[in-house]
Amino acid sequence: MKTNAAWIQKTVACAMTLALAASVIAETKPVNAKVSRIKGSARYSTDSATWKPLKVGQVLGAGTVIQTAANSFVDLVLGAEDVVVMSPRIAESFRVLPPPEGAFEPLAMPDSIRIYADSVLALDKLTSTTTGMDEVRETQLDLRAGSIFGRVKRMSAASKYEVKFPNGVAGIRGTVYSINAQGVLSVLSGSVVLSIVGTDGRVVTQVVNGGYSYDPRTGALTPLTEVQVQELTLASQQAGQGEATPPTSYTVDQTIIHVSPTSGSSPQSGGSGI
Predict the structure, then answer these.
(1) Domain containing residue 181
(2) pTM for this one?
């Protein structure tokens, strides 16, 4: 009996230790947004009443609202900054001449956002939860006016990245995209699910794959023009890099998720201007 009692005590103690360790591992931490570049001028507020000028290098958290001026834009990096390396052999060969495309390979591509001119973007939620060997990230943005560009790295299945706009929401995964406050969406790679509330109150859902643009005002799904491809590609190379813009390559996530225009992610997927 004593042997059984001792075994039970050890088992309970082990279970409690594992539970405690799991709770520590699954700790949710905030993710910051760092300002990597500003063209023109922009300001920010953490209380929607007091505004301060935005500066390069500034670190912003959830609850921040950013407003850009005319002829301006702001680049943000979410979480850790990009790590870009060049192989020693290639570096030796290009000491004088600039390296060719493909010489740089990112070890960890960050999520990046460009807030275009005359835009208002709120950072509603930025969190990261480590669960054992996985990372679950939740990014919720509120585009109140204007337009943004985004580059999103491959995410875990439980992660969420959503952009709200006045009459809908976009669910995004492993994607290069641009979207405006009217819900007009262009996707360079990956896939985005739009859920939009129409003027009649009905919810319309549209999947937009890489290489296409969608305008909910007309219902037109059209291939990207050459100009659109060039603009998205250039923004993807620049965003999050500061003044340096080395070529980058990354893996996109083709997973489709479904979102609600009123509450964000559906249960199946886990989830005013100033």
Answers:
(1) 27-260
(2) 0.72
